[in-house]
Design brief:
- Residues 1-19 form the signal peptide.
- Keywords: Signal.
- 15% of the residues lie in helices and 49% in strands.
- It is of the alpha+beta class.
- The longest helix is centred in the N-terminal third of the chain and has 19 residues, at 2-20.
């Protein structure tokens, strides 16, 4: 009987401890948090491209992780037309069903496709393409935002104009 109780406790206690840990709560990052997190000049390949901090968007959790993006001022750089936003993430990010990005720095660009936008993702340090994922027009009326990362509790999407790109975060 004691062996049975010990086995039961050995099996249940680790599961109870894991389920007792609260999941992080994500919220919209404040302008001050975004300014502290995002660089004024983003390191992209061999360049340090100026960012437009007033366009910054992002989310943060109660464990100090942040996911944020900002417009790159690409005029005069080789990147012009290839990408337009710098994305910095401290948590793994799954975009659509096709792409998983580990914590790191990325640049994003997009082109118009027949069914929406084709979002192109590149590694910021090397310029290597990480992949493409589709963003689709919203089926519901929404306020048009040039670029916005919504908290997962509100709407787990990255909004580009009227197009939405769903994302998920690792627990």
């Amino acid at each position: 009987m004691r062996l049975w109780i010990i086995c039961l406790l050995a099996f249940c206690l680790p599961h109870l401890a894991l389920s007792a840990q609260p999941k992080p709560t994500w919220r919209a990052a404040t302008p001050a948090e975004l300014e502290a997190f995002l660089p004024a000049r983003a390191p992209v390949e061999k360049e340090r491209i100026e960012t437009e901090l007033r366009t910054a968007t992002g989310i943060t959790d109660d464990h100090g992780h942040t996911i944020a993006a900002v417009v790159l001022i690409t005029a005069g750089y080789a990147a012009d037309g290839k990408y337009s936003h710098y994305l910095l993430t401290q948590s793994p990010l799954h975009l659509g069903t096709e792409i998983t990005l580990p914590a790191g720095a990325y640049v994003l660009g997009w082109s118009r496709g027949p069914d929406g936008l084709l979002v192109h993702i590149f590694d910021a340090a090397t310029g290597a393409e990480r992949g493409n994922v589709a963003a689709h027009a919203s089926k519901q009326p929404i306020r048009i935002e040039s670029f916005k990362i919504w908290p997962p509790a509100d709407r787990p999407t990255i909004q580009i104009g009227r197009f939405l790109l769903p994302y998920t975060l690792e627990p």
